[in-house]
Queue: 2 jobs
Job 1
Amino acid sequence: MRRSRTTVAGAVATAALATLLAGPSAGTAGAVERERLVIDLATDTGAFHGGAAGSLYGVYGDGVPSRSLIEGMRLRTVSTKAQDGPQHPGADALEMLPPFVDSGGKDVYIYMTDIYRGFPYQWPGASGPERLADFKTKIKKQVQQVLTMGKYKDHVVYVPFNEPEGNMFGTGEWSYDKVSWLNDPQHYFAAWKEVYRLIKGLDPDARIAGPNTSVLYDQVKGFLQYAKANDVVPDVMTWHELSSPAAVRTNVAKYRQMEKDVGVGPLPVNVNEYGHNYHLSVPGQVVQWVSAIEESKIDADLAYWNIDGNLNDSAVEANKGNGQWWLFNAYGQMSGHTVEVTAPHPNQQYTLQGVATLDEDKKQSRALFGGKSGDADIVFDHIDPRLFGKTVRATVQEIPWTGQVGDSAQPLRLADQELTVGADGSVTLPMTGMNEMSAYQVILSPGGSGGKPDAPSVSWRETYEAENAAYTGKGYSRNGPEGTPSDVGKFATSGAYNVGGLRTGSDGVLSFDVEVPRDGTYDLSVFANSYNLYDLVKEQGPTNVFLRVDGKEPQELRLPLGYKWVVWGHTDTTVKLTAGKHRITLAAQDPDLGVTKGDAIIDKIDLALRDEKVTAPALYEAEYATLTGTEPRYTYGGASGPGAVPLPKGASATFWVHSPADGESTVSVDHLGGGRASLALNGEKLDLPKVGGAGKGTDTVRLFLSGGINKITVTGTAGEPVLDRLRVAPSKGTLVPTVYQAENGTLTGAAKVTDAYPFATNGKAVTDIGDGKANALTVDVVAARAGRHALTIRYSNAEQAPATHYNPDPIARHADLSVNGGPARRVLFPTTFHFNNFWDLTVPVTLKKGTNRLTFTAEELPDFNGDTYNQYDQRSPYAPVIDRLAVTPMAAK
């Protein structure tokens, strides 16, 4: 079969890149003119803003997504529904406001219209004035509720109208008078003035945003003129860009000219909906939007096409990030000021685009780019020798696409090299074999410290497209093209096509012919999807298929579920292969293991050599971490990378560390001496001896890491310890979990054991916890010592509310967890897409030595004022189905 044309900077590309980076750095000569992305470090384009990291309906509530995901993504703004609004389950403004702000967020934009059901909004009344009067009553209540939020209220921005030209002041059934304000603005303008003055009258310090149109219409200029004349100019200008990155640059410039013509502003801008299904989750697509938004120095929120609470297809489960999350993590760690980036096709979507910064204090430049397959040169011009010296250290990383619901490890390190700055003050990094779905990062630091370059973290790898594989048996379908630049409403898919046929009753076999370079163990990822509400899928949940290598060594794989068709995740396993050619098959029947139940589509398989580069501990260099109260230094000869970080008392370095699963990891803290430092995990200071010392060394600790993203912070406590890096690898044997089956606990009231979900451990789980505190699960657990422990809950949740629109509306169920009779803590559990699909969620708990009693209850949460309840089944009274609990100490040295 044909090798994929979209192989992502694989082993050949990695080797070529390393070789080229080691060669002449002032440019490369070749017969074919390569595209060039030029980064001019001498042209300052303004302070780094970070505004592209925004989200519409991306935060459901505290824990969905986790605070680590919010903070690590550097989420700056969120647009969300009015408190208790019936548009969607969750995402209530005043419930997600505190965790968002506490996780570093700046502003919550409240869509005040979302207090109504439906889209267009179904505001009641026989006439326009009656409808507006009802809305004003609800606006008053919303503002009064915000005023109870203490310091958090300062982070609220009110959005009185949303897309008024298609809703309240459009031409439809639910409009004010069936006349679009774009043709006759009198009623909309008057309503804007009334509502603006109502809000400011209740809260003079309130910030109000508008007009929040679906595009930047020419009529917005007239809106500004009216607003200025009546002293009701919005505090923030908002509109939507469901268009292209090129339109962002063009329309921001167009709007700025409107301001000048009218004589207002300049106002802060939030383009509070951007992007399409084809773009979201794809780092190589989203980086093109990021570059335009950052260049325009505005805020912007990713559009909400699917489910809420997953950061617009950035978050997986509660605490995992996909490739898009890691793109925003890299973007959020930029600092200093942006510099001019000249793309080979400026301001043209679906081409190589980028954004870059220079931080003189850190002596560091960072560049993010992507959107093109193949080769290109990344050129850094005007490198200041006073900052960088005569050589620079370049670390090159890839952030691959891992699907909408596919967990991603930290970015892949493709190369780490020292380069001599050319006589013209430039260096050129030749990128070979790029994938248009990936984003790439280059971190440039001073060279010459003598630090040994870090090896690439990836070796041989290859992608094989399902549409190019052979298929035998019945039921085959080749589906696509899926999302394309001309059909952005559809989801992105590797190679644009996928294959169906592996389903209940099928005899289909999908065969991939592969060739590998050497004997060894290989990581195999099957990118697949099943629609959770499809008839054949509803019976069992995850679709099972059967993997064989050359007809041998059968494995049963459970493929990922999604909220729609063509929503990709990946199921991962390992296979042992000898050098040469092999046939890897996915089948709907296996003579030893059984038959498929369900229905799945397959996008591709990724195959990667699991060698010492892959299995080595993940490296997190301190000079690349998020630093507070300190800066990197590049004069430490014993450092592993380009430099190290001194940590005077109170200064800290924060690392965003990936764990493939909930469980023990060995964290090695490499330091150069000078003092002591403490460790904190996900914001909690660990009860461990201080790390560091008088001289160079390594402190090894065992930490329980949650599956996905973990925030590890090292803070100076005595002297001035010099931190070199962290090395992190999964381990076992020190932090040993104790497992308790839920069905062995004490059940009260209606809570009962069920055998309806065969994928539960031992085929049994506990259901019907909740709908009142009497219906509870109690489990007694034993702790060998007092202190903080990880409580890992294996659960399922597939409750979904009826929707009035294109968004699926899954509900995050909750459990009220009490430890030893203490106050209950509410824990949110995101959807698992089927009650027979079980995930792990870990929460920290404090246990006493000996026996501890854990009690799980649930009851429906009332509306904000406590006097009403949601009438659309959007707040569940039930806890999830609970399969088992595991209790593990949080840390040990």
Job 2
Amino acid sequence: MKNFSQLKKNLKKDFSGLKAIKVAILGDTATQFLTQTLRGLGYDNGFNLEIWEADFNQIERQVYDLSSELYEFTPEIVIVFQSSHKLLGKYNKIKPAQHVMFASTELEAIENIYSNLTNNLNAKVIYYNYTEIDDSIFGNYANKTESSFLFQLRKLNYELMVLASKSPNLYLCDLSSIQNQVGKANFFQTSVYINTEMVLSIDVLPKVATKTIDLINTLNGKFKKCVILDLDNTTWGGIIGDDGIENIQIGSLGIGKAFSEFQYWIKKLKNRGIIVAVCSKNTESVAKEPFEKHPDMVLKMDDISVFVANWENKADNIRQIQSILNIGFDSMVFLDDNPFERNIVRENIPEICVPQLPEDPADYLEYLYTLNLFETVSFSNEDAERTKQYQIEAQRATIQQKFTNEDDFLKSLNMLSLVEPFNKFNAPRVAQLSQRSNQFNLRTVRYTDADIERLVVSDDYFTFAFTLEDKFGDNGLICVVILQQENSETLFIDTWFMSCRVLKRGMENFVLNTISSFAKENGYTRLKGEYLPTAKNEMVKEHYPNLGFEKNNTHWELNIENHKRRKSFINSK
């Protein structure tokens, strides 16, 4: 991680060509150095953060005055930083009888700030939670005394989590966990605070900025979807081919405990929806044996989406995994204990994340915790099914190799699609897919649950959610189209994105047939599309011309009256 001075040097670099994001920072303490750190780290992440910073301790004035500089700036993201030290100052000044209601009163004020921001701005709100201060008035008994500051502070952090879980555009940045990692002495320096009103030390600023940029990355569709595991001395201790299944180190004794706890961490990631793959230099049958037969293995074959074990180059094997998963290399994390193998992969696939695992396996987890590799801004029940879906995709890839004719293969899949407008059941998955889809995404518009709710009740938009299932299994919701009524004759394709898991199945033809039929039945004569290029969606650059649309200035248009249904082997469910 770069330090503050290194990140500050980035401010002299050329930000043109980077994705511009307007960010407002509202703080009750000095935030100038935080602003510089965020902008410098934004550069390293491909962002030109255009940051407007409110004057010191002007949060309420900026939020409640609709003519304020905040609303003139129209940010896409608002960062609100109310510090624990100011919180303690408020607590100190109220009457003791009010202490027991302190957290509830503060939460109500925070909720009002959030409501005003989201009602008057089309913005996401990142709120920094509170680091702990123990004023030692009650000692340990503070944990049993509801009126104590420590009790109220912890209650407020808990209630903030509850509020965020119910507020689709509110995201918490966990400063408290950073202080736990680095220690209060490294997080906060009294002399700096007294003289400058800065509550964040210079040394901790890059960590706070990293935690914040993690959220901004994820809100913009940049996050990790897959972890690829080496096996020997990474997933278990020892070398399975040499030591044999009975002598590898896993379980509750000695260093085996470190590997078992590492496996539990991977298992939790899998249950959250992260794809788990294996890339090992081993004979496949030998490499699979612990997963199938060792009683202490936490990970089983059912947890692995793609299993590649052979004696080929690991970079080539990772490319094979990528071809099956159809996700970007920058969405992958490769974990391997061997520095040589890590360097081979880094040199050949520079986009992939390859952490520098510590030499001692006992340190793996604590190190990985600090990296926060798998930030997310959404979670749905469908995530738990992702492993099975990718296992099925691997089966499809194997079966497809047996067919010489692609049409015959597609016919053999017996594909069915359910097409529905957005509803309370599919809306969370629609929002999540909009955050995750980067490659097959014509305009790369991101939606939150609140955005979806607005579209559902609007008379100007028509929404379509497509599922896909075949003889191998159900892929769930995999495609979304949003049509906007431009005029009495034209429907504009505001949004068209699709999961890359279902590429090369003819889904785009089925979708076009569906929306063109809808347009014709409702009296429209033209579909109008737009391709907005990003660093990741070049694969759909020719999407509209390939479907028969004709160029009209910067847009693509399809005359529905002359449109002939395109060949598709997908049937409506």
